[in-house]
Every structure is written in structure tokens, then in C-alpha cells.
Fold this protein.
Amino acid sequence: MTSQTLPRVATGPAERARLAEEALWRRHGLVPTARTIELHQPRVRLRVLDVGSGDPLLSIHGTVGPGGWPSLVEAMPGHRFLLLDRPGWGGSDPIDYGKHDYHDVAADILGGVLDALGLAKASIVGTSIGDVWALSLAQRAPSRVDRVVLIGGGPIVQEVERPRFIRLLASPLGAVIVRLPMSADRTRSILRDSGHGPSLEKGRIPEEFVAWRVAISNDTPAMRNERAMVRALVTRSGWSPTLTFSVSDLGAIQAPTLMVFGSADPVGSVELWRRFASTLPKGSVETVEGAGHMPWFDAPDRVAAHVEAFLRA
């Protein structure tokens, strides 16, 4: 495993994306360290951003990308965030999800990351499809997991409808979408569709995030890699059964699990996530009124308070 500080000079597309990332973290007063990890099962090179100090929180992002985390990290001092770039994002190599059981490969990768970082176990934080990763490790390697935090709805159970953007990404039109230049206006439109319109209007979402999202889309293959993953997980009628969890799967997860859900999140509903939590032996739900799919974008302090109370319990 190697480590390095984030680069400061950009001369090409990849460097432009890194420069936008650095500016985003600087906006929140944070300077993470980038660690490169080589795994053998599956064979893949991954990047983890290491920021903060305290108890470790291994965190897995959704389709918003790893640049979504800084405002939550800022709101939760006293924790060491280990922010994984999922395969195909940022500094992580892609993998062919069609060749793996999704839950198995997610658990194998997260377990391998913990091994590489010298950690026997950690609390796991997921958001969106990162929720599936967090629960996969809790189900398949319970000794590696202290607590599980799920922030925002995700494709955990079949009842969750596929978001419009995910349906488009999986369709033939998705091949065009991921090659079209991303703009700041289109990024803001996606954020509005995700329930963050009021925060955009009030300036709660920094322009540095919008600039990073434009750069990661235009200057890296992240969204093309994300589409390849989505196409392996979405069917014409819904989610692939290799992605979601059955009631018996969820009933076997013994780790205390908290879901923090924004009432404006289009992925699922408060009623659905309460039913989901009731199937977990130690599940609970906290609702953040008015917040969208990434609820900490709208209410970082409220989300942080819910997570902190859960971690201390």
C-alpha cells in the first residue's frame, strides 16, 4: 500500500479532475491523504482517501461519486473517514461485475481494504448503492463490522423502484448520456431530481462540488464505468436478484444498523424503509424532513447528530 497527498498541479484531464477534487476538499477545510491498495481477490487496484482521526468509518459512495463526502466529514470531526473510490471511480480500477456475485465481490473488496489498512473491523457507512456494499459485508463477514450506517435510499430490496436516471443509464440511450459533455446546469438538474432543489436555491451546495462533478464526468471514465456496473444489475422489470436482499438475508444481519432517510429522497419512502428496518434484528430509521437523496447535502448537522448518537449507543 502506498500513500500520497493529493496533487496540486494539473496539466491533463485526470489531473484536472484531481485539481477539482482538491479544491472541493479545501472548501471544507480538509486535506485527505490518498492511499493506493492492491487487492488479489478480486485483482484490482483501489484508492482510499484517509481523512480525520478517531474511530474508523469505512465509507462507500453512490452514483453521486466520492466527491459527495466532504460536507459530512466536515460535520463529523473526531472520526477517521476511510473513503473508498468504488471500482471505476477516481483512482480505482474498474472490474467486470458481470463475472461476480455482487454481494460477494463487495464483501471481498471491503474486507480486503480493511486488511490492507490493518483494521480487524470498523463501522461501515454507505449511501445509495453503497448501502448494498455495507450490508454485504455485514452479511458475509459479520466479524469485520461494528455498526452499519445507511444514508439515503438504495437498491436494497426489490420494492425500491429504479430511479429515472438509473433506468436511462441502463438503456441504450445511456451509452450516449455518459459520453455527452457534463455541464454545471445539467449537474444542478440531477441534484434537483434527487431532492436537493431547495438547497441549491439557498446556496447550501457549494459550487466546488458542482465543478468537481463536471470534471469527474468529463475528464475521467467514471460514468462509463458506472454504466457498465448498472447494466449488470438492472433488468427490464427491476433490479437483478443478485443485487437486492431477501427478508431472510436481512434477518441474518446482526450488526446494529441505522438508516438516515431524507423525506424528499425519491428512492423509496419513509414507510418502505421503516418496514426494511423492522426486518433487521437491530435496525432503526431516522428521517430528516425536507432532505434529498444525499441528506447531508441539505442538513449536514442533523445527519451528523443522528449518526453520532447511533455510533455512541
User: Anything to note?
Assistant: The mean pLDDT is 95. The chain has one domain: 2-312. The CA atoms of residues 24 and 208 lie 5 Å apart.
